[in-house]
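Quick one - first record:
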Amino acid sequence: MFKINNKSVIDKCIISFSPNRYESRSLADKFALEKARREIAQKKKGVSHLILRAEGEEIDRLKFLFPISGIPIMCYALGNLLMSSLKEIVVVGSYEVGIILEHFLESVDTRGKKVLFVHEDPDNLLLINTLILGRNQLSLASNELVLFQPGDLPFMYDLEGVLRDPDLKRHNLILWLNSRQAMFPHFQENPSGEFVARNYHYRVIAEKDKQLHDVKEPNVYPINLAAIEEDIIELLHQTRKDGKILNAGFSKALRSPGRMLRLLPVLAKHFRHFDSDLKQFRLDDQYKFGAHLKNFIQGVSILLDTPFLAKFNDDPAFVSDVDALEDWEDFESLVYFAEERHGENGLAAIHPFGKELVRFRKQAMPRLGKIIPMYADFHSYLNGIYRSLEMNYVPFDEAGRYGTPNLHTPQIETAYRWYSDKSSQRAAGPHVA
C-alpha cells in the first residue's frame, strides 16, 4: 500500500516542557483530587496525585522544574539527550525553563550538539502547536523522522534503540507502547520487582507471541511531521489516556469516506474477535481499549494514510515519567537511597550523567534559587502542595530533611539495583555519544 524510504537514523529532537494549564488552581486541584480519590476507592496499584499547572499563579506549578535531589527534572531529561547520538535538540518551554537551560548548558556544555530554546505560547499550549514551534526551528527533509518527547522522563537515558530503529525507514510514526509484561516479565511471581507502579488501561494481543500485554500509552514518538496530518496528532494525543482512541479514529475516518471504507474490514474483525480472544487469556478483565496488535497497526495505518507501527518497550525508564507527587517520590527516594550508600557519587552510580548533574547542582542551583520563585523555599512549597492534595504526610520535616513512606519500600531498593546494573552496563558497553 505504501512505498517510502525514510532516513535510517533520527538525529533531531523536540522536547516539550510545556504542558497545558487549567483555568484556575481550584479546577486543577479538583481534577487531581477526584482522580486520586477514585483510584484509592478502586484500590488501584498506582494512585496518582497529579502535578498540574493553572493560570495566574505566582509560582508556575510546572512539574519539569521540580528538583530531584536538588536538580530540576528537566535537567535529567536534557542530560539523557546530550548523551545520545542526537545532533539537534529544540527545547520548548516557559521563561523559567529557558533560564534553567541557559545555566545548565553553561555548566555541562552541549557536547557538540545544537541546542535551541523556543518560548511556549501561553495562549496556545496544545501539543500540535508545541510541535509546530519546535518544527519551525529545524530543517527537516520530507523523508526524515524527528523524536518528540515530553521532558518528564529523568532516567530514560538509553535512547539509541529508538534513534537507530531499523523500522524508521519504512514507517512515518512509531509508537513504543509501554508493556507491563515486557518491562516486568516476572511481576506476578515477584510483585516487589515491579518498581514502577502504574495503572495499565489498555490490552493488546500479540498474536505472533501468543501473549496478552497490559499496555500504557507511549512517552516517545518517532514521527515524520511532513507525513502525519496535524489534526490527527492532536486527536490521538487528547484521547491517549482516557481510552477514547477508537472514538477519535471514528471521528477522523468519518471525515474521510475513502479511509472509512478501507477501515471497515479492520473494525469488523476487531468487533468479531477481540473480546472472545481476550477471554482465552482472562475471563474477567476491565480495560479502556484493547486490540490485536496486527489489526491495530493496520487500522491506524489506514486512518493516518501512512505507514504506522506499534511495538513494545521493555525498559521501565520509558514508562517512569513524573506526572504525580508519587512519581516524584519514586525518584527522590531512589537518589536518596543511592546517596546513602555512595555519598556524593550516589547519583553517578545509577545515572550515567550523574557527575555532570551533581556539578550543575553545585555550580548553578545556588544562583537559580535566587532567580526561580519555586526554589526560594521549595521544601515549604512542596509540603503545601501535599497538604492541599490531601496527602496524609509531607515529604520534608522542619529542617528540610526528606522522608516519606515510599523511601522504605522494597521497590526502591529494587529500582536502585536495576539502575545500578543498567548504568554499569552502559559504561562498559559500546554506545554512541
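second record:
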Amino acid sequence: MKTTKLVSSIVSIVIGAAGICYELATHVQQLSGRSCWLVEILMIVAGIIGIVALASKPWTIVATVIYAAAGIFGIIKSFKYSGLLVESIVSLVVAVIFLISIFMQNYGEPDATPAPKQ
C-alpha cells in the first residue's frame, strides 16, 4: 500500500505542476482560472504530505481530505474550465486510494517483543 500511495502522490505532484506550467504559459497576461490554481496547489500540497508521511495514519487522513476537497472543488468548477475535470478526477481517485490505505495499511503498531539483554 505504501508503494501505491507513493506513486499516486508523485503522479499528483507532476499533474499539479504541469497544470501550473500550462496556466502560466497560456494565461500570462490575465491570470484567469484561479480555481485551477487552487486545485493544482492543493494537489501538490496533498502529494507532498502523502510522500512525507507514508507511515502516519493522521497525516494520511489529512492528505485524503485535501485530495477529496481538491477533487470536489475541481468538479464543481469544471463546468467553466474543462481542463480542470481531468485533474479533479485524478484527485478523487488518489483520495480513494488513500482512503482505502487508511483501513488496509498497518501503521507501525508498537512491537511488544522485549529488547534483547546485553
